Amino acid sequence: QVQVAESGGGVVQPGGSRRLSCAASGTITSIYAMGWYRETPTKHRELVADITNFGGTNYGDYVKGRFIISRDNDKNTVYLQMNSLKPEETDVYYCLYYANVWGQGTQVTDSS
C-alpha cells in the first residue's frame, strides 16, 4: 500500500514563490506518474501539473511558464516550484500518485 504526503504550503506574497513537495512511501513496486491538483471553489480538482515516471511533463494552461514540476525517483518525491503566484492561486494543493492515491493536501495562503 502506498501513501503520499505533501509539504511546503504556507503564506506567500502575491508574485512570490513557493516549492511544494510530495513524498510517496509504503510498498512501491513501480514508479508511477504523479501530479499536483488544486481544488476550485466548486470542489473540483483541476490539474496543475503532472510528470510521468520518465520525466515527461504536462501543465495546466494557467501555470505554463510559471510553475515547474520535477521528480526525484530515488526519493519517490515530486516537487512543484511555483513562481509569480497570483492571489487566486491560494488554494489547497493535492498530490496524486497515479495509482489513485491522493494526499491530504497542503494549503497555500495569500499574505495580502
Describe it.
- This protein is an all-beta fold.
- Helix content is about 0%, strand content about 55%.
- Strands 2, 4, 5, 6, 9, 10 and 11 form a seven-stranded mixed beta sheet that branches. The protein has a four-stranded antiparallel beta sheet with strand order 1-3-8-7, with no helix packed on it.
- β9 and β10 form a beta hairpin.
- The protein is globular and about 45 Å long.
- The termini are far apart.
- The mean pLDDT is about 95.
Query: Strand count, sense and closure of the main sheet?
Result: 7 strands, mixed
Tell me the number of strands: 11
The secondary-structure element order is: EEEEEEEEEEE
Task: Please give the radius of gyration in angstroms.
Answer: 13 Å
Question: Low-confidence runs (pLDDT<50, min 5 residues)?
Answer: none
Q: Based on CA inertia axes, which overall geometry fits?
A: globular
Total count of helical runs of at least 4 residues: 0
Mean pLDDT: 93
Q: Structural class given helices, strands, pairing?
A: mainly beta
End-to-end C-alpha gap: 40 Å
User: Which band does the percent of strand residues land in?
Assistant: over 45%
Helix content: under 10%
